[in-house]
Design brief:
six-stranded antiparallel β-barrel
Length: 99
C-alpha cells in the first residue's frame, strides 16, 4: 500500500510574512494583504478584501534575493477565516525574477 503526503505540491512553498500590494487597473494600491507563502507557481495571502474564485489579481511583492515582482494571477482557492480569508493565486504572468 502506498501512502501519499497531504502536501503533494507541484512546487515547493516558501513561507513569507510580508506585505502583498494588491493593484487595481490603474496600478494604484487600493488595499494591502499579508503574504503567507510563495512558490514558482503562485502565492497565498490573507486579506479582509473579498475576492471570488476565478477572479484576476494584480499585485506587487518584494522578495529577498528576487527583488520586486509584479504578478498577474487567478484566485484558485479560498479558505474563510475568522477575520478575512486565505486566498491561493496561480500565476498567469510574473515580471521580475521568479522565486
Amino acid at each position: 500500500m502506498t501512502r501519499y503526503s497531504k502536501e503533494a505540491r507541484r512546487a515547493a512553498r516558501q513561507p513569507h510574512d510580508s506585505v502583498l500590494e494588491l493593484l487595481d487597473a490603474s496600478g494604484f494600491t487600493p488595499s494591502d494583504a499579508r503574504l503567507v507563502d510563495v512558490s514558482a507557481l503562485g502565492v497565498s495571502f490573507t486579506s479582509t478584501r473579498v475576492f471570488a474564485k476565478g477572479e484576476p489579481i494584480r499585485a506587487r511583492l518584494r522578495l529577498l534575493g528576487a527583488g520586486v515582482l509584479e504578478i498577474k494571477g487567478t484566485v484558485v482557492r479560498i479558505k474563510e477565516r475568522e477575520r478575512g480569508a486565505l486566498y491561493a493565486v496561480k500565476f498567469d504572468s510574473v515580471r521580475g525574477k521568479r522565486p
